Predict the structure.
Amino acid sequence: MDWSNISRNLKNHTEEIVIEILEDLLEKNDFGNICTCEKCLLDIASYSLNRLPPRYVASHHGEIRTRIKEFETQLKVDAISTITEAIKLVSQNPRH
């Protein structure tokens, strides 16, 4: 059994959604002059991911990816709210 291959083929779909939404929110620049250094972005993403449910998919199974679409709308709504909270929190308390 090649466990490294198993690990490579598991993907947390929530990570993809969080990064995508975080990029979109920061591009719109609705948050003013906040720090977008790597440390702050990682803190925002980590904060968000720790508060959202993981949605793991097997990257080589299309039928699983199709089923995850059912959850995506609610996940995006929840993610926007959580990421917005994270941006405000991290920008008020940067670790640098």
About this structure: The chain has four helices and two strands. The first strand starts at residue 10 and ends at 12. The chain has a mean pLDDT of 88.
